[in-house]
Design brief:
Largest sheet: 7 strands, mixed
Radius of gyration: 23 Å
Number of helices: 11
Strand content: 25-35%
Shape: globular
Length: 445
């Protein structure tokens, strides 16, 4: 383990968990890399909280769906206004912010004029007055909301840029390609949490937004829960200390990276997001950090070597953009090793951490496959996949996912994955399971 600390940022540490022993001819090396940030998030949040000291500067854009469907029922729009007001109240003094109304076009609700407001008592009250004038009407083109948020956030000279997006419907007034282009344009420029309210939105759209912009996705089935959810989201955003942290992976000549995945607190495949960072090194984006810990699964293919040989399979470090645009190394580092042995007991043992997260990644995959099969009427296939999900959730102690699965299937025997599909499933229960399918539990100590 190595760590690094500066007065103005959290201390980062890297721990590597693996079985480094390979049989003769073995080529695949797996490791779980735990990254932990500590020492940040110590100053209070919300109105009156200190904006000076160790807190970095931040800008936030809240994107509120104002399409016609937000009027059905009429209380939905009221809850959305109240939730946005609660989010504004949670902003730290000095934070730059804007509120965007989203329909088939994006509108600046507050402060307007292509500007960002500065959070303080007066600005909060002005924002809440502007929110009271919001009404529902029009279509849904989320890409336009994101592009406006990007323009507004980019106008601020701040360390952290974050978006919050709320929608209640499908993105019907622009093409999937338009939304994808907007996400590609915004990726790496700001992070974004996305929420679907009610049950008329598309899970894959909302989760794709959060995935592309390294944020969280969730369902708020009852609009009355929006204010509490927005408050928690904004508290988390205000707790971030360091932006644009990347996992840098260096590998020696002859090796190849098979994949890099975040596996806790949720599964997110980062393999395709690599950017080259010099000879045999690549950076994988992880977004913004506060006081928290995350786990990553690294799989490396190494050239086969003779018995007794040992090699460094990979070196993992953390970097952030420096003032001059070059990467600044945070000093935390972990080493992934490969050792060839004829000890069968050593070479066939699986690291508990690797085994656990391999199962968690499979759990997320089979839930999505099972729900997709159920939607197209392949009930035998759905039963098999969701049964496997129940078995994996039970074995890993993922109680939250097990409870969600039990609302979609009747569990006969969790240990063997024997289940029956329920004939009646509430739409909110199915969408909650799909939205939260990637959430994982940590390895039991």
């Amino acid at each position: 383990m190595a760590n690094f600390a500066k007065p103005d940022v959290p201390r980062f540490s890297v721990d590597v968990y693996q079985n480094e022993y390979l049989p003769e001819g073995g080529r695949e090396v797996n490791a779980i890399v735990t990254v932990t940030a500590t020492g940040g998030g110590t100053i209070g949040k919300g109105p009156g909280a200190a904006a000076a000291g160790r807190r970095p500067s931040a800008a936030v854009a809240v994107m509120v769906d104002c399409s016609g469907s937000m009027d059905y029922p009429p209380t939905k729009m009221r809850h959305a206004r109240d939730a946005t007001a609660a989010a504004v109240d949670t902003l730290r003094d000095g934070t730059r912010f804007a509120v965007i109304g989203g329909t088939h076009v994006a509108t600046e609700v507050y402060p307007g004029g292509g500007r960002l407001a500065v959070a303080g008592p007066a600005a909060r009250e002005e924002a809440k007055r502007a929110l009271r004038r919001l009404s529902a009407g029009g279509g849904t083109a989320i890409g336009t909301w994101l592009r406006l948020a990007d323009r507004l956030l980019a106008s601020a000279d701040v360390t952290l840029r974050h978006g919050v997006l709320l929608t209640d419907g499908r993105n019907e007034h622009e093409s999937p390609d338009d939304l994808r282009a907007a996400l590609d344009a915004c990726a790496g420029r700001f992070t974004c949490d996305a929420r679907g309210v009610g049950t008329d939105w598309e899970v894959k759209e909302v989760t794709a937004i959060a995935s592309a912009l390294l944020g969280t996705a969730d369902i708020v089935a009852d609009p009355a829960g929006l204010a509490a959810d927005f408050t928690r989201m904004m508290e988390t955003a205000m707790g971030k200390e360091v932006a644009d942290v990347a996992l840098r992976v260096w590998t020696p000549v002859g090796t190849a990276i098979r994949f890099v995945k975040q596996v806790a607190p949720a599964v997110e495949d980062l393999t395709g997001r690599r950017t080259e960072a010099g000879p045999r090194a690549g950076d994988y984006p992880t977004g913004s950090w506060g006081d928290e810990s995350r786990d990553y699964h690294l799989c490396v293919e190494v050239p086969p070597a003779g018995l007794g040989r040992e090699m460094l399979a990979a070196r993992v470090s953390l970097v952030v953009p420096g003032p001059d645009g070059t990467a600044q190394n945070l000093g935390a580092q972990g080493l992934v090793r490969a050792v060839w042995t004829d000890d069968m007991t050593a070479s066939t043992a699986i690291s508990p951490q690797v085994a656990h997260y391999t199962g968690q990644a499979e759990l997320a995959q089979v839930i999505k496959q099972g729900l997709d099969l159920r939607k197209v009427g392949d009930f035998d296939g759905a039963t098999a996949k969701l049964g496997r999900a129940v078995q994996l959730a039970s074995a890993s102690g993922n109680a939250d996912t097990a409870k969600l699965l039990a609302k979609v299937v009747d569990v006969v025997d969790a240990a063997t994955g024997t289940v029956r599909l329920k004939t009646r499933v509430a739409e909110a229960d199915e969408m909650t399971l799909e939205t939260r399918s990637t959430k994982t539990v940590r390895v039991k100590k």
